[in-house]
């Protein structure tokens, strides 16, 4: 397709209701018992991009992933995975999908290579085909030289990276990642991020759920914030920050907080107290910082607003279990 033809071809596809979106969810709904845990979610992934799903515990993220993969049936709405209707064509669609589940499901009694072989066979790959891919997969996951290591001897970070390598055994076009770095140390997280960036650079599409806002900010082109089974905001990390929050935050703590709270109300656009800290959201941090300088009973931290501020504003500070 030439560039000149592209807009016309896209318009034609759109008119037919088709697209090259690796995943399309339309008005997706799922009930458990009496509760609507996924409540009309629309989502369309762009090829070669990373789309983040952020939401507090119980928001419906994992259920959305399971619906998308055809692991559970929807009560309403449609799922199209790599062009296939789900769950009717699940087996066909999943051939080019990789999954990194929240909890590692590696076989502890097998070696690294044996885990890859067993998993690859689910996709109908021969032992020879998988063997040929093993060095590349292990190199990608920073596990070169570990092919014959028993899984039980690997560290947590290594196991997580092996789970990522395993998800790539069938050379998927679309990869679902459910909290891929939970429980890892910063070194291991950075290694996983490098790997995920390389996948995006190779044109793979990623759907990522995470509780780490810095991870979402680093990796995601688009983020859907989900709460109570609904998408409550969507945009690039930058768009979400600009659209939902004041540009500066001054976090204030110390003995004189009660007095400062009264003063801050007149200086800042919005203030929120969480425990011993007052979060002061403002367009003009200079005024706030100048006022704080003359108050020796207070300490403060001035920083740019980030995705976590947006997340907390949209979903609240109350604990979710
Ligand atoms: P998240 O991944 O955002 O933490 P989930 O999709 O796991 O949220 O869960 C959304 C809601 O659905 C929660 O209230 C959870 O308890 C409920 N839920 C999830 N799976 C089941 C299930 N198999 N049976 C009953 N309730 C479920």
Structure characteristics:
321 residues, alpha/beta, Rossmann fold, 2 domains, four-stranded antiparallel β-sheet, 12 helices, 14 strands, globular, binds adenosine-5'-diphosphate
Gross CATH architecture of the largest domain: 3-Layer(aba) Sandwich
For CATH, the homologous superfamily of the largest domain is named as P-loop containing nucleotide triphosphate hydrolases
Within the CATH hierarchy, at the fold level, what is the topology of the largest domain? Rossmann fold
Q: Number of DSSP strands?
A: 14
Q: Which cofactor or ligand species appear?
A: adenosine-5'-diphosphate
**Dominant shape:** globular
Assign the structural class, choosing from mainly alpha, mainly beta, alpha/beta, alpha+beta, or little secondary structure.
alpha/beta
Mean pLDDT: 92
CATH class of the largest domain: Alpha Beta
Low-confidence stretches: 1-18
Span of the ends, CA to CA: 50 Å
Fold and architecture overview:
This protein has two domains: 3-242, 3-Layer(aba) Sandwich (Rossmann fold), CATH 3.40.50.300; 246-304. It is 37% helix and 26% strand. It is of the alpha/beta class. It is globular and about 70 Å long. Helix 4 (112-122) crosses helix 5 (127-140) and helix 9 (237-244) crosses helix 12. The N and C termini lie far apart (50 Å). The chain contains twelve helices and 14 strands. The strands form three sheets. It has a six-stranded mixed beta sheet, with helices on both faces. The model is unreliable at 1-18 (pLDDT under 50). It has helices at 6-15, 61-68, 90-94, 112-122, 127-140, 156-167, 186-201, 213-219, 237-244, 257-267, 285-293, 307-315, and strands at 23-32, 35-44, 50-54, 76-81, 84-86, 97-100, 174-178, 205-209, 222-227, 230-235, 248-253, 270-274, 277-282, 299-304. Bound molecules: adenosine-5'-diphosphate (ADP). Adenosine-5'-diphosphate binds at residues 32, 37, 55, 57-63. Adenosine-5'-diphosphate (ADP) is lined by residues 32, 37, 55, 57-63.
């Amino acid at each position: 397709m030439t560039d000149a033809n592209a807009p016309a071809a896209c318009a034609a596809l759109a008119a037919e209701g088709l697209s090259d979106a690796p995943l399309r969810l339309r008005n997706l709904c799922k009930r458990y018992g009496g509760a609507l845990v996924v409540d009309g979610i629309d989502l369309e992934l762009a090829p070669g991009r990373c789309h983040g799903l952020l939401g507090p515990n119980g928001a419906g993220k994992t259920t959305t992933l399971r619906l998308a993969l055809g692991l559970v049936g929807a009560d309403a709405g449609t799922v199209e995975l790599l062009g296939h209707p789900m769950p009717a064509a699940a087996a066909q669609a999943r051939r080019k999908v990789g999954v990194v589940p929240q909890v590692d499901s590696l076989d502890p009694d097998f070696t690294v290579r044996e885990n890859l072989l067993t998993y690859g066979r689910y996709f109908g790959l021969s032992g020879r085909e998988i063997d040929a891919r093993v060095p590349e997969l292990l190199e990608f996951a920073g596990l070169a030289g570990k092919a014959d290591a028993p899984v039980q001897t690997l560290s947590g970070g290594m196991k997580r990276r092996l789970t990522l390598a395993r998800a790539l055994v069938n050379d998927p076009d679309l990869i679902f990642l459910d909290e891929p770095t939970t429980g890892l140390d910063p070194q291991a997280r950075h290694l996983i991020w490098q790997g995920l960036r390389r996948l995006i650079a190779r044109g793979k599409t990623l759907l990522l759920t995470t509780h780490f806002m810095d991870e979402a900010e680093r990796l995601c082109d688009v983020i859907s914030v989900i709460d109570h089974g609904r998408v409550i905001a969507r945009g690039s990390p930058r768009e979400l920050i600009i659209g939902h929050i004041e540009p500066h935050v001054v976090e204030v703590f110390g003995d004189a907080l009660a007095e400062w709270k009264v003063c801050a109300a007149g200086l800042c656009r919005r203030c929120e107290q969480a425990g011993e800290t007052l979060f002061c959201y403002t367009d003009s941090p200079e005024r706030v910082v100048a006022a704080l300088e003359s108050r020796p009973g207070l300490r403060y931290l001035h920083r740019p607003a980030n995705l976590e501020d947006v997340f907390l504003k949209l979903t609240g500070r109350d604990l979710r279990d």
